[in-house]
Design goal:
transmembrane helix; transmembrane; Spore Coat Polysaccharide Biosynthesis Protein SpsA, Chain A; alpha/beta; about 30% helix; globular; signal-anchor; about 350 residues; two-stranded antiparallel sheet; single chain; Glyco_trans_6; eight-stranded mixed beta sheet
C-alpha cells in the first residue's frame, strides 16, 4: 500500500513537472501575441505639410516628421502621423500644448463632454471618471459634463473648477446593455439640439468606464475626431472586426475601411457630432426594422460612418489605452485608461 502511494506521488510530480511549461506557455499566449502585434509596422505619413487638411489653428505647428532636415527631439518617425486624406494622427511628441491652449483661449473655446452612467455603471465608474476629468480633460477651459443617467439622485456631488459644470440628462432604462449603447446616439443628438449647440463649439462623447491619467487637451479638438482602437492599430486589415453581415447598414466589405475606430471616444464640432449621431441612429433604427443587429452595435455603425465621412483628426491609442495589452514602445503616455470590467452583470441595467 505504501509502495502504491509512493508510485502515485511520483507520477503526480512527474505530470506536474511536464505540465508546468505548457501551462506557462498557454497562460502567456495572449501577451505574446499582443507583443508580436506591436512589431507589425504602421503605415507612414506620405503627404507634405502643405497637403494636410488642418481645421484646428494649433495644428499648423504639428511636427509630422516629414522632412529629415526638420526632425527634432519632438518628431515621431516610429508611427503613422497622418492619413492619406490629410488628417493628422495625434501622438505625444508631435505638438506643443501651449500653442494649442493659447489659440483656444483666444477663441473662447468651450467643450461639452457627454457620458452615459446607467444603472450600476454610475455607482462603479462615474465618480472616478469625473474626478480624473477635472485633473486632465481640457484643463483651464469651460467644460460642461452632460451625464445621461436613469438615477440622477445618485450623481456624486463634486466641487468643480471655475467655469465647469455638470448637468444630468434623464434617459430611459433598457433591459439590454446593447440597447443602451445604441440608443445613446439619439440621446446625444437630442442634447445637441436642446442645449449643446447654444453653449459649446465642441463635443466629446465618451464611455464612463475609463479614467484620465494624462493631458487630454485642446490638441484633440477638431471638426470631426475619431480614435484608433488600442487593440487594432497594429493589426492587419483582415483582422479588423467590422460588421460583415450584408443585411446590416453597418456592413463593410473586406476591401473597405481605413482604420478600426473605438466608439469609447469620438467628437468634433457640435455640427459634426450631430451629423455623426443622427446618421448612426438612423442606420441603427433601419437595422431594427429588418431585424438585424450589427456585430459591435453603435461602434460598427460609427466605423461605417467614418469610412464614408473621413474624420478631420484621428487620435492615437494613447487617448484611450488598455494596460492589458502590455508594453508598446510607441505609447509614450497613456492619457485615458480603460477601467477594469468588474463583472458582466453590470451590463444588466437593473442590477
Amino acid at each position: 500500500m505504501a509502495r502504491f502511494g509512493t508510485r502515485t506521488s511520483a507520477l503526480i510530480k512527474k505530470v506536474l513537472v511536464l505540465s508546468l511549461p505548457t501551462l506557462f506557455f498557454v497562460y502567456h499566449i495572449p501577451y505574446s501575441i499582443r507583443f508580436l502585434e506591436g512589431l507589425i509596422p504602421m503605415g507612414k505619413c506620405e503627404l507634405s505639410h502643405a497637403d494636410m487638411k488642418l481645421d484646428n489653428a494649433g495644428d499648423k505647428g504639428l511636427n509630422f516628421g516629414l522632412n529629415q532636415n526638420y526632425l527634432s527631439s519632438q518628431s515621431r518617425t516610429d508611427v503613422q502621423t497622418c492619413t492619406y486624406w490629410g488628417a493628422p494622427i495625434i501622438w505625444d511628441g508631435m505638438f506643443n500644448p501651449d500653442v494649442y491652449d493659447r489659440t483656444h483661449t483666444k477663441d473662447h473655446t468651450s467643450v461639452a463632454l457627454t457620458v452615459f452612467a446607467v444603472g450600476r455603471y454610475l455607482d462603479v465608474y462615474l465618480k472616478d471618471f469625473l474626478i480624473s476629468a477635472e485633473l486632465h480633460f481640457m484643463v483651464g477651459f469651460p467644460v460642461t459634463y452632460y451625464v445621461f443617467t436613469d438615477v440622477p439622485e445618485k450623481i456624486p456631488a463634486l466641487k468643480l473648477a471655475s467655469g465647469r459644470e455638470l448637468k444630468f440628462m434623464p434617459v430611459k432604462r433598457h433591459s439590454r446593455w446593447q440597447d443602451i449603447s445604441m440608443m445613446r446616439m439619439k440621446s446625444i443628438r437630442d442634447a445637441i439640439d436642446s442645449y449643446i449647440q447654444h453653449n459649446h463649439q465642441y463635443v466629446f462623447c465618451m464611455d464612463v468606464d475609463q479614467v484620465f491619467r494624462g493631458r487630454f487637451g485642446t490638441e484633440a479638438l477638431g471638426d470631426s475626431v475619431a480614435l484608433l482602437h488600442a487593440h487594432y492599430y497594429h493589426r492587419f486589415r483582415r483582422m479588423w472586426t467590422y460588421d460583415r453581415n450584408p443585411k446590416s447598414q453597418a456592413y463593410m466589405a473586406d476591401s473597405q475601411g481605413d482604420f478600426y475606430y473605438h466608439a469609447a471616444v469620438f467628437g468634433g464640432s457640435w455640427q459634426s457630432v450631430k451629423q455623426i449621431t443622427d446618421t448612426c441612429y438612423r442606420t441603427i433604427m433601419e437595422d431594427k426594422k429588418n431585424p438585424v443587429e450589427a456585430l459591435w452595435h453603435d461602434e460598427s455603425h460609427l466605423n461605417k460612418y467614418f469610412w464614408k465621412h473621413k474624420p478631420s483628426k484621428v487620435l492615437s491609442p494613447e487617448y484611450c489605452w488598455d494596460t492589458s495589452i502590455g508594453y508598446r514602445s510607441d505609447i509614450h503616455i497613456a492619457r485615458l485608461l480603460w477601467q477594469k470590467k468588474l463583472s458582466d452583470r453590470l451590463r444588466g441595467t437593473g442590477s
